[in-house]
Amino acid sequence: MMPESRTVAIVGAGLVGLGWALVFARAGYVVRAYDPSEEVRGRIMSQAEDSLADLREVGLLNDPQAALSRLSVHDTLAGAVEGAFYVQESVFETVEVKTAVSLELDAVIGAGTLVGSSSSGIPASRFTEQCAHRDRFMIAHPVNPPHLVPVVEIVPAPWTATEGVERVVALMHEVGQVPVRLAREIDGFVLNRLQGVLLNEAWALYEDGIASLADIDATIAHGLGMRWSFMGPFETIDLNAPGGIEDYAARLRGLYADMVRTPPRGPWPDEVIAKATRERRAALPAEDLADRRAWRDARLSRLVAFKTSQGLSD
Amino acid sequence: MMPESRTVAIVGAGLVGLGWALVFARAGYVVRAYDPSEEVRGRIMSQAEDSLADLREVGLLNDPQAALSRLSVHDTLAGAVEGAFYVQESVFETVEVKTAVSLELDAVIGAGTLVGSSSSGIPASRFTEQCAHRDRFMIAHPVNPPHLVPVVEIVPAPWTATEGVERVVALMHEVGQVPVRLAREIDGFVLNRLQGVLLNEAWALYEDGIASLADIDATIAHGLGMRWSFMGPFETIDLNAPGGIEDYAARLRGLYADMVRTPPRGPWPDEVIAKATRERRAALPAEDLADRRAWRDARLSRLVAFKTSQGLSD
């Protein structure tokens, strides 16, 4: 069972940490945030206010003021963590920084407090080994921004206690995220492995001149990505053959095996990246990247509202 | 330029061919449909009427009766093709069947008439070599159902005339599809190569016990698939690093290269398919597959209406 405390701590309050603060605050939790940068700390409240207003505008939140009132900013890590039963750590992603912050957390967390790291690629075993309470550290990897994209990968280190993993999975369900539980550590976890294979193939097709960057993008945005926005690849193929997944596999696994590139292509080549950069910058000048990100998040928030209205949000 | 004719022919009117009939009829074209099966021919009009009513219900079509009045069913292939400037062929996908139908079309199509095959994997060079007018045959591969998922891959055979490819690309734009133009034939084209690499990795993760089928699905449906439903993988990474695609590549191509399975995994093993089948059938009994497909298409049609309302449909 969860401790009585309804307090969580946010350690590292850049874009990812801020999104996490919104996730917990809107779900009714008291959220205590800390970031090592004074500048970042100084803008947390106003950024949160703006984002909560955006959520209200698309119908995803009734009372932004109530959510905001549950959020506070603290000048020290120890101050933020005080009374928290769960810490979401979202600091800069290097082994050195993650190790230092984990040791700092290890020294101040209360009895039973659990720590989830937003690490997108480095497994917890690489930065929590020296922690006295290492059995309470794990990965809780979101997609950015976490208050709009609900999936979160829960990845235990070899020494993480199963009970703690189960508590964090339950917590994520309770706050409206969609936790995905990995049995053990693997490079890239599940999400970035799936993204990685698709990106590697997309780069190879582009390198070989099969299609333009824009056309490869269209294949996903106006094709595969539409079903995938509300059902995964296994359910998709289960519905794509008369007899379900087994029937689909019997018909097509040979085709898919034949498509595998052997030997595998190496890292994306410099000159191909340079060509792709020219194609993207012609479509979207560098100075418009920030506006396009805001556009993306606005579309994402409306997609979330749409999925919610259709009963597709979990 | 397009011929004066506003008539297209549908050859093969199963689910894919029927969807194509709706695409052209709602766009104002006269559509003449043929299927070798009398039973299939007998249900085309009522199926089209139902689907056009569904499109109206979600706000994607104003006048279903007008669209239906442009559609007719013919008892012979030659009869359907009469007067058509474009033929969309969607017959059963084997080299033998495609070859026979292509030769039949070759003998009756008018001067300048173009033929696109809905083939999802067999390239046109494998079934049009013997055609006298083989320079007018190509692949026009949709996602099912084509009236809801707009992408269509245009793939020339080595002998397909470029002018004809350009006409079909223009036609697809005009009827509201999103054509993706491939420079040349490649196994699986673009769409199924991208789907294939992701499926192969998903099966491998499942085989290794990293996560459940449902959790791997959730990683896409509540994670990666959300952005991919309105922007492709290249635009996604372009927006996911401060300096755009080049910056993203510099940071992460090494990580993605390290994830490649070497040697590649073979075809999905029988026992893994059997296990996955049990997991899927526990989640969705076989007798509910048809209902779930109807549910999927209803959600897809509402997603299309949502994307249209957000300016995301092309």
Automatic annotation (TrEMBL), chains A, B:
Entries under SUPFAM superfamilies matching the protein: 6-phosphogluconate dehydrogenase C-terminal domain-like, NAD(P)-binding Rossmann-fold domains
GO BP: any one term: fatty acid metabolic process
Example of a GO MF term: L-gulonate 3-dehydrogenase activity
InterPro entries: 3-OHacyl-CoA_DH_NAD-bd (IPR006176), 3HC_DH_C (IPR006108), 6-PGluconate_DH-like_C_sf (IPR008927), 6PGD_dom2 (IPR013328), NAD(P)-bd_dom_sf (IPR036291)
Pfam families for the chain: 3HCDH, 3HCDH_N
Residue span(s) of domain 3-hydroxyacyl-CoA dehydrogenase C-terminal: 188-247
Keywords linked to the UniProt accession: Oxidoreductase
Domain 3-hydroxyacyl-CoA dehydrogenase NAD binding residues, every copy: 7-184
Family: Belongs to the 3-hydroxyacyl-CoA dehydrogenase family.
Entry protein name: 3-hydroxybutyryl-CoA dehydrogenase
